[in-house]
Amino acid sequence: MVERDVQAILNELVRRANETSRRLRALEERDSLIETRVSSLQDEVLKLNENERMLHDELNSKLSEIETNILRIDNELIRMNKAVDKMAKRTELKELENMLSIFNPMKTNFTTKEDVKRIIREMR
What we know:
3 helices, mainly alpha
């Protein structure tokens, strides 16, 4: 009877040890799977950080290029404004056109030297 009880206790201990071993292996497998997933996630995060850094650098480069272009355009606009300020205004051109039309020999009647001499002789 004592032997049976000892045998039963030993059998129960072996069963429990086997059950504990099985559960421990299952936990180790889950732990290994979790470590693999965490490692994959870490790799993915590192890739995302690298991509973000590259995108950030690219954006900074493009912003710098845009800033350079804006400065160039601004300088060109300043130069063009100075050139426009030196140009004649529309009213000045009209005034010049009117003066030229007054002195245009095709449209005005100028007297020649002979005409003046003849007029003076006639007046005497």
